[in-house]
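[SOLVED] Predicted holo structure with zinc ion

Edit: marking solved, answer below. Original request kept for reference. I posted the sequence and ligand SMILES and asked for the 3D complex as structure tokens.
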Amino acid sequence: MIVNWTLLEFMDQIAFLEFKEKIYWSSYTPKAHEPFSATVRLVQGIYEEFSSMARAMLRQRIYANYRISDMDRAMVRIAAKRISECVEIADPRINPDAHEIKYRPASSVHSLSETPITERAQMEQVLKTLEKNCRRADVKFLSDRPVAAVLLNSRLEPMAASWNSSRENRTQHAEVRTLQQYWLIEQKPVPRGAILVCSLRPCGMCAGMIWHLCEDPFSVRVIYLQDDPGPAARGTILNKGVSAEQSGILGAQPVEMSMDRAQAVGFL
Ligand SMILES: [Zn+2]
């Protein structure tokens, strides 16, 4: 069968994996800064649709027909296993046995008041209230910890908020949920001067997503209440303050800081 590869290449991002001789694939045509892509959809969708075998499926190599972003790469590192980019693939739509993953999270309007949060104690109370939504039945893994995140604009007014729900879907960290909800509601990049406040230091996946979603990542601050001693939060794009995509920018200030350091510079 003839595949119109040229057309496919310009229209859609495609990502797929093979598991037990079946192809699972997704496509996406993202806008600039959007926190969704074919890879994000594939990984998140497999957890949602095939929860009992998702971990086994995501141990398979993912193939993408496009140059993946740092966000894609970081999500694969935390929630899947490995990925090959710029792979010339046949259009999976011509394979009747291939299974399309069409997952997209539902948008829900957050119920936080838009009153500015200016005090540390106030912020801690907001995060604690959000964390009550985290399921506590199994706290064996770090990812099951009660963790919440709040995205503030430059006037310190909440724009989106959520909590960790990653026990079954490893992509559902508080920060990812907050950022994707923000996009689903606003349909635009995170504006300059925004602040993402998290109860725990963000892992590489969450760091990759905030970086990707920001209009100007160097103007956005990420503040965490508690450090994460695990390897997932080390060497992230926020620690380094520079992405592989923007490796020409050197000497920029890191955009991540602990709440104590934030206090020292006069914030909250
Ligand atoms: Zn995370």
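OP edit: The CA atoms of residues 14 and 27 lie 4 Å apart. Thanks to everyone who chimed in.
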